[in-house]
Write a structure and sequence with these properties.
Blueprint lengths: L1 H21 L35 H10 L10 E6 L9 E4 L2 E9 L4 E14 L9 E6 L2 E7 L9 E7 L7 E9 L15 E4 L4 E8 L22 E2 L2 E3 L5 H18 L4 E2 L2 E3 L7 E6 L16 E7 L2 E11 L2 H13 L8 E3 L24 E2 L11 E3 L6 E6 L12 E9 L9 E6 L2 E7 L13 E4 L4 E10 L7 E9 L17 E4 L4 E2 L6 E5 L2 H7 L12 E5 L5 H18 L7 E4 L10 E6 L1 H9 L6 E3 L3 E5 L24 E5 L5 E7 L7 E7 L2 H13 L8 E5 L2 E5 L5 E5 L2 H9 L3 H32 L1
Parallel strand pairs: 11-13, 12-14, 12-15, 15-17, 31-32, 31-33, 33-38
Antiparallel strand pairs: 1-10, 2-9, 3-8, 4-7, 4-9, 4-10, 5-6, 5-8, 16-17, 16-18, 19-29, 20-28, 21-27, 22-26, 22-28, 22-29, 23-24, 23-27, 25-26, 30-41, 34-35, 35-36, 37-38, 37-39, 39-40
Helix pairs in contact: 3-4, 3-6, 6-8
Length: about 775
């Protein structure tokens, strides 16, 4: 009886094992989420052809074939594919050691519901790994969803695996974590052995099939759905007008454009313009009582008003309506949107009163590092965990430093940094170190001392009894010549693991390191003084316009009746300013090309085709380039070849241009031109000039995609190529002491400095000679 009972239990267990095995693919990947592959429709998807995989990877082919139906098109859904590189992992994931891991984050928009999702993993692993002991674990939001086996014949090959992601596990923010479990020997092994590796390609993809969700009309959801923080793609925010906008209406829309650029942060923002036509996506409409959009049935208002309504052409799309009696009301409503968003709720809000903030001081942009006092590194990160690292060879701790472009680093002794850091101390003296770099250029390295070892009395070494870490402090000076307007400050910890013998100890990933948030960096000794025009300043940070984050000393100059391309170019440029400063701007002026009497004491951004070309031609013959629909006039100063001060590039020395060339051409051409304002000295003009409407937009695109190629006072954009030149005169802006100014300008003329020194020495010698002669004469008289 006991034998039969045992045999019965055995057969039941065997049957269960067979059922479990049948639910697994031949490669050993459990098809997590395979049951709901039809998404929320509940229909069984049709089989689809498997994508190509590496030869010999039969398991990968099986998995791809089994899950390809997950991303089969479903009526009413849209498919999006995003790579790991687009999600921030530009170099992919490098998994090392017995338990190496890496993360990639992705989001789902608030106005979308996921019908199905797929992780298409492209990876390679070490041929030395033992298949029976090694695998790759895949987690979604900390839930294990798949385990990928390692076959001997596939080691070192580029493999592709499709892994379904259960739509029910997805939320607005999601994390995919990959963990390598690797072993290369059945006996004692070194957990840090070089053969323990797996590389995840940056071209790995996350494919989602989504359905639109109809959101309620509620202003409290702003900035969604027009901007969704979980969507890392470039933004496109259509601007809709009920009639061709006046310059005052353009100003109101420009305020919103700077706000959208600021909240978009690293995302590129564009503003397609339409008049009397509803957009095909979420958009922002600017209407008055006299310029209502046809088909938009809204009552007239007696005060600035904000509304959230559904697009009449598609109820799943939203329109944010900025409404007023006239253009002045639109400006008030736009300012209420960008400054008082936290107080908005419901489907409509009437603005009874609004007081504008006082003007902002210079150089106070939230995304710029303060230059009037030491700044704590904790102020420069979003989360304190960004200053911490785990492991013996962790990823570098990186801090972004955005600075005003006009900082004068000439002959500066360096930027002081009071650096405090903590780490798990080595058990004995070794070569563990912490190195400091800026813009991937080495600055300094420091050895990490073992517990209790401190022969150097010039620094502090304290043992923190609470967590067993050590704290150290160093005074670092970053060479000023390595500092640019955009900087990446990085700290790399490298610790040596210790083992007395092959099997005497198991090494865990217990090493911890951190930069203290109280560490400071101080740029206050760098004065503001720069040689202009330098279009690299404009492309990098919008300088000189963004010197005041509210654009208080900026005027946008455009045609009196701008077309759609000109409007989109103006809004995109203003969005770039907001992206640079991190805050909306409301104190700029919008003028047409005939209002030259209001150009005084303003930095001018000139945008347009023929009207702009006529204004530039009227201003004089010394401009680098003027473009009309068919005519191009290019001129250079007689001094010709000179450098523009661009750092770190062989292109810093600009090319030679002709003294004058007047040509007629039918081909498209666009340019970004910088020069000193003919109206006010030491004021700047940057002109976006083109022979066609599409050319205007190509300049804005070049600033985003080819910003490193833009410098000098002229950048010519022709298709996907950008060439920069230095052709005109330069001028200086800023405020430094007279002694620094003299030394700075004389430093570029060494021969003149030598002659002045000789003349000074000769004058001193004559003075001494005369004094000696007079003294000798008095002695002889006695």
């Amino acid at each position: 009886m006991q034998l039969r009972a045992s045999w019965s239990r055995y057969t039941k267990v065997s049957a269960i094992c067979l059922l479990v095995a049948a639910a697994m693919d031949p490669g050993g990947v459990m098809l997590a989420g395979a049951a709901p592959t039809g998404g929320r429709t509940g229909k069984a998807p049709a089989p689809a052809a498997a994508p190509e995989v590496a030869s010999g990877a039969s398991a990968a082919a099986d998995v791809s074939g089994a899950t390809a139906a997950v991303i089969a098109p479903v009526p009413g859904t849209s498919q999006r594919t995003v790579t790991f590189a687009q999600l921030g992992q530009t170099n992919g994931l490098r998994l090392r050691g017995t338990e190496g891991s890496g993360d990639v984050n992705f989001g789902i928009r608030l106005d979308q519901s996921v019908a199905s999702a797929l992780l298409r993993l492209r990876y390679t692993y070490s041929p030395a790994l033992i298949p029976d002991l090694s695998q790759l674990k895949v987690y979604l939001n900390e839930e294990l969803i798949a385990t990928l086996p390692f076959n001997k014949q596939d080691g070192g090959k580029n493999l592709v695996r499709d892994i379904p992601l259960d739509a029910r596990m997805l939320s607005g923010f999601n994390r995919v974590r990959l963990v390598l479990i690797g072993h290369y020997t059945m006996e004692c092994e070194d957990p840090m052995h070089s053969s323990l590796w797996a590389d995840i390609s940056p071209q790995s993809e996350i494919v989602t099939s989504t359905q639109p969700l109809t959101l309620r009309n509620d202003l409290s959801t702003l900035p969604a759905p027009f901007f969704d923080r979980h969507d890392n793609r470039d933004q496109s925010v259509p601007f809709v007008f009920g009639a061709p906008p006046s310059l005052a209406v353009v100003h109101a829309a420009g305020v919103v454009a700077t706000w959208a650029g600021a909240i978009g942060d690293y995302r590129r923002t564009r503003f397609p313009v339409s008049v009397n036509a509803f957009p095909s996506k979420h958009g922002i409409a600017f209407v008055t009582n006299d310029t209502m959009l046809p088909g938009l049935d809204l009552p007239k208002v007696d005060a600035p008003t904000l509304r959230m309504v559904s697009n009449p052409n598609d109820p799943s799309l939203k329109l944010l309506v900025i409404q007023g009696r006239d253009a002045k009301d639109l400006e008030t409503a736009a300012l209420a949107l960008v400054s008082g968003r936290a107080a908005l709720s419901g489907d409509a809000t009437r603005i009874a009163e609004l007081q504008q903030l006082p003007p902002r001081p210079a150089y106070d942009a939230p995304r710029w590092v303060r230059t009037d006092r030491p700044v704590k590194l904790g102020e420069l990160v979003d989360n304190p965990s960004d200053l911490q690292a785990n492991g013996y060879m962790p990823w570098p701790i990186r801090i972004q430093l955005n600075l005003p472009a006009d900082l004068l680093t000439w002959q500066n002794t360096g930027v002081p940094m009071d650096l405090k850091y903590r780490y798990t101390p080595p058990v004995k003296p070794d070569d563990s170190s912490m190195s400091v770099s800026i813009n991937d250029q080495f600055v300094r390295a420091y050895r990490l001392r073992s517990a209790g070892a401190s022969s150097d009395k010039s620094h502090m070494l304290v043992e923190l009894l609470s967590d067993g870490t050590m704290a150290d402090r160093k005074e670092v000076r970053i060479p000023a010549f390595q500092v640019a307007s955009r900087n990446s400050l990085s700290f790399q910890f490298a610790m040596e693991p210790h083992k007395e013998g092959m099997c005497s100890q198991t090494i865990t990933n217990a090493a911890r390191s951190a930069i203290d948030a109280d560490s400071t960096i101080d740029f206050s000794d760098l004065p503001h003084y720069a040689e202009l025009p330098n279009l690299s300043f404009f492309a990098g940070s919008g300088f000189p316009f963004t010197k005041y984050a509210d654009l208080a000393q900026t005027a946008v100059v455009m045609s009196k009746t701008p077309d759609k391309a000109e409007l989109e170019t103006v809004f995109s440029a203003l969005g770039q300013f907001g992206r640079s400063t991190g805050v909306y701007a409301d104190r700029f002026e919008v003028l047409d090309t005939t209002q030259t009497d209001r150009f005084k004491d303003r930095d001018l951004l000139v945008v347009g085709g023929k009207d702009a070309a006529d204004l530039l031609t009227k201003w004089g013959k010394n401009l680098p380039l003027v473009i009309d629909q068919t005519r191009r006039v290019m001129q250079a100063e007689p001094q010709g070849y000179r450098g523009d001060g661009a750092t770190g590039s062989a292109l810093a020395a600009s090319r030679i241009g002709p003294q004058r060339m007047d040509a007629v051409s039918q081909g498209p051409l666009a340019a970004l031109v910088g020069f000193e304002s003919p109206v006010s000295s030491s004021r700047s003009v940057v002109a976006i000039n083109a022979s066609s409407d599409d050319g205007l937009l190509s300049v804005v695109d070049a600033i985003d995609t080819q910003g490193n190629a833009i410098h000098g006072d002229l950048a010519v954009v022709n298709g996907d190529r950008t060439a920069s030149y230095r052709l005109g005169k330069t001028y200086f802006v800023g405020d430094v002491s007279w002694w620094t100014r003299i030394r700075y300008h004389l430093s570029s003329h060494p021969i003149l400095v030598g002659l002045v020194a000789l003349l000074a020495a000769f004058a001193i010698a004559l003075k001494c000679f005369g004094w000696l002669q007079r003294r000798a004469a008095r002695r002889l008289e006695k």
